[in-house]
Amino acid sequence: MTEAAPTAAILIIGDEILSGRTQDANVSYIGQRLSTLGIRLQECRIVPDVPAAIVGALNALRTTYTYVFTTGGIGPTHDDITTDCIALAFERQVVRHPKVVAAMTAYFGDRLNDARLRMANVPDGPDVTLIDSALSIAPGYRIENVFVLAGVPSVAREMFESLAPTLQRGAAVHSQSVDGAVREGDIAAVLSRIQTEHPRVTIGSYPQERSTSIVARSTDKAEIAAVVAKVAQMMRDIGAEPVVGPAP
Amino acid sequence: MTEAAPTAAILIIGDEILSGRTQDANVSYIGQRLSTLGIRLQECRIVPDVPAAIVGALNALRTTYTYVFTTGGIGPTHDDITTDCIALAFERQVVRHPKVVAAMTAYFGDRLNDARLRMANVPDGPDVTLIDSALSIAPGYRIENVFVLAGVPSVAREMFESLAPTLQRGAAVHSQSVDGAVREGDIAAVLSRIQTEHPRVTIGSYPQERSTSIVARSTDKAEIAAVVAKVAQMMRDIGAEPVVGPAP
Fold it and tell me: From CA A189, how far away is CA A187, in angstroms rounded?
């Protein structure tokens, strides 16, 4: 991995994730995309719709990582408190963004009301920039190194793709997987030796019901290929047929 | 919610969740089960296979919440570093648990090796207790208020059910949902009023493509019923047919 690669964290805001009602789908998408951009996702936190929890987690993450992506809590209902909390964390006022108000007025007409206008709220400051999405009239926004995104996965993805070109990139992290009908305990010693021989590749081992999936990740494709060849040979040596493929 | 309810956090350990390769499935299961046990899941963190990240997160969580559940990193391969990190966090030595060694010796016979024996490692101390699973010869364990579970969802669930009877319980949190073909922005004002009238119920609003799902949670079933009745009436008042059902 490149030493100087930018880092990132995701802050997932929502009681519904912690209660088990909703399965998060944003970490896997954003995680994969950040890998291709060479940005290292180093932590995720899931917090409830509680101001102190949101503000505390946001301040911890934004002072630790290059970028923070928040998801959830930017809708029109009483439980959407993300913007109020972001403003608290940055010690700024909440203001209504005139461009969003204009877009909402055109879109909603008579149906525009106070609740919907809350979706035009952003923290005050000339550095706050909107993140548009074709799927939602209510935008996300960037404030300093924090990107505030919707929780609904389709909208979060649109917003991520809209902001992605603005991110500082590192060397892209590539990956390959080798699957085989082997048990982790039978390959662990050789795999550990391969890891030691290739410190610039991160080798992960993931057991399935009757097989094991080995994933090699690195910014260096040639080193990945060398690891994949050794892992495949290791599997053949104990009678398993390795299947090499792309790894998300 | 009951003031004195026990609290909990989940610490998910694994590069594969952050890279997007693997979709976590343990938060939703454990989150739902904790709700029924009256234990309030207040935070989840996902960290990579990096000792400083694991130790730092574990120490933050175990000193904040009644219980911490970790998932992942207790297999036989080089990337399984959870037990070493748990021992570091508690400033204890790692020892091989004789009961697990005996069970593994009987189970694996000639196939028992150093890698598999790593799965018998636990932090030292008379208070460390094993958490058995019918699906895995390698157990999880409890140390103080921390429960160390497998990452594979089927095994994590077995281990959770095995330890669940030992947990201190609070009043169970019940929930109901009301779905209707309404838009959040059209119901937000009335919903906010209902929330204000029922402060002991947590009301969440979750938009879908063409409908909205309102979820009411509380330890008090009668209060949930009152909220559900008001939400259903609110939907009928704007021409939508509410569908009331159980909410996970």
Answer: 6
